[in-house]
């Protein structure tokens, strides 16, 4: 796309609580929507903008618009979307707009006049084009009148001249970049990765929580013997941006992100329950991949709280932690969880609550609660859950 260089007066129309996920040509902190629109008009490759709704007003200059990339246009309570309207249209509000057919767009016909931008002085040197700017290699260079400014690229923080990679959602939270849950870009394994950072206390305490794994207990993807627990392979990275749904996912944060806390969540019949493990680690991979048992002293009742009132475990063994279970393959075990037994030993367990599980009584249950009829404290159970793991 190439905008007419002679068109310097434009009108902007707004889609409230929407976001266009296309490549950015610039990013700024602004005071209001008019300044954001002005930035777009100054940039020859800008066709629309995303403007943050809360906290710091981040203005993202976009290389396309919602009509050119309709599949990337979505609802997002953290952003408003502004796009340039064809000024030759006599009455824009009466023209059919495919994005104004629902109640979220009732006010979107208001046109926002953007500032007039004069033709650029031919003697004004574009440092961004010539490479004479002082921006970090990890920053956008944005041309201004007779000068330029720098803004760190997604996944980095700083003043634009110096930009440091952001590697976790808690770092995003602590640096004031975002204080509400939103999709952000982290620098993971030296690569930009988009994830949904969960901000605030949704059940595990305050701060920013980085997603690591999502496990569907009905599927074999992350059963105890799966190689995903020991390798460095991603699985469905898109699932890291979709929150508490049923998309399974394994992100590179599994082997890259250090932490002092782990948040464990299970969803059963749309009911979410959480618990927190206070544990320091270089990564979750470092605590699981070698198969060695590492104890987590949470106690039976804490594990059962993930399931709710229906939870059931046999009374003996109570081995809890990472890689919990005995040496016999066909009995219960879990990558993170607790196992119980009727006998007073841990090699033939027939009950468990955990993530990444397998074995008796139901080998197909990879996340949730299993308990056979022999001596459980709340009856026989076969409860499959959707599991969520975050770190901070």
Q: Note the beta-strand portion.
A: 35-45%
- SS field, number of helical segments: 6
Radius of gyration: 26 Å
Oligomer: single chain
Give the number of DSSP strands. 25
Mean pLDDT: 86
Low-confidence stretches: 2-9, 87-122
What structural class results from the helix and strand content?
Answer: mainly beta
Give the end-to-end Cα distance, rounded to a whole number of Å.
41 Å
Taken from the alpha-carbon principal axes, the silhouette is elongated
The biggest sheet amounts to: 7 strands, antiparallel
**What level of helicity do the residues show?**
under 10%
Region (Disordered): 357-380
Protein name: EGF-like domain-containing protein
InterPro entries: EGF, EGF-like_Ca-bd_dom, NELL2-like_EGF, PKC-binding_NELL
GO cellular component, one term: extracellular space
Task: Please write out the topology.
Blueprint: E1 11-15, E2 18-20, E3 24-29, H1 33-42, E4 48-52, E5 58-62, E6 73-75, E7 79-85, E8 111-113, H2 127-130, E9 139-144, E10 147-152, E11 156-158, E12 163-165, H3 169-174, E13 182-188, E14 191-199, E15 208-216, E16 249-250, H4 253-256, E17 259-268, E18 271-281, H5 284-288, E19 294-295, H6 300-305, E20 316-325, E21 333-341, E22 351-358, E23 367-371, E24 381-384, E25 386-391
Antiparallel strand pairs: 1-7, 1-8, 2-6, 3-5, 4-5, 4-7, 9-10, 11-12, 13-14, 14-15, 15-16, 15-25, 17-18, 17-25, 19-20, 20-21, 21-22, 22-23, 23-24
């Amino acid at each position: 796309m190439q905008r007419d260089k002679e068109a310097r007066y434009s009108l902007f129309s707004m889609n409230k609580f929407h976001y266009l996920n296309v490549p950015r040509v610039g990013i700024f902190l602004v005071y209001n929507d008019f300044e954001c629109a002005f930035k777009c008009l100054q940039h020859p490759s800008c066709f629309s903008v995303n403007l943050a709704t809360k906290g710091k007003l981040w203005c993202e200059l976009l290389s396309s618009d919602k009509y050119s990339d309709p599949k990337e246009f979505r609802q997002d309570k953290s952003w408003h979307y502004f796009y340039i309207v064809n000024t030759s249209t006599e009455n824009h509000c009466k023209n059919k707009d495919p994005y104004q057919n629902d109640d979220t767009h009732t006010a979107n016909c208001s046109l926002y006049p953007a500032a007039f931008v004069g033709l650029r002085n031919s003697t004004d040197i574009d440092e961004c084009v010539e490479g004479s700017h002082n921006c970090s290699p990890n920053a956008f260079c944005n041309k201004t009148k007779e000068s330029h400014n720098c803004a760190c690229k997604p996944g980095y923080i700083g003043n634009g001249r110096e930009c440091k990679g952001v590697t976790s959602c808690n770092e995003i939270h602590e640096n004031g970049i975002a204080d509400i849950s939103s999709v952000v870009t982290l620098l993971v394994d030296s690569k930009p990765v988009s994830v949904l950072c969960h901000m605030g206390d949704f059940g595990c305490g305050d701060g920013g929580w980085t997603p690591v794994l999502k496990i569907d207990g009905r599927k074999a993807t992350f059963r105890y013997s799966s190689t995903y627990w020991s390798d460095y392979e991603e699985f469905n990275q898109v699932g890291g941006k979709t929150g508490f749904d049923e998309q399974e996912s394994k992100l590179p944060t599994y082997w890259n992100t250090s932490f002092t806390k782990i948040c464990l969540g299970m969803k059963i019949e749309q009911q979410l329950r959480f618990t927190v493990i206070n544990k320091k680690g270089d990564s979750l991979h470092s605590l699981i991949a070698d198969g060695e048992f590492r104890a987590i002293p949470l106690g039976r009742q804490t594990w059962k709280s993930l399931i709710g009132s229906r939870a059931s475990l046999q009374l003996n063994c109570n081995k809890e932690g990472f890689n919990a279970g005995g040496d016999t393959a066909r009995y219960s075990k879990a990558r993170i969880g607790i196992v119980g037994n009727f006998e007073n030993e841990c090699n033939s367990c027939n009950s468990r609550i955990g993530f990444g599980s397998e074995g008796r009584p139901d080998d197909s249950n990879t996340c949730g609660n299993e308990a056979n009829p022999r001596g459980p404290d709340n009856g026989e159970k076969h409860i499959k859950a959707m599991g969520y793991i975050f770190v901070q």
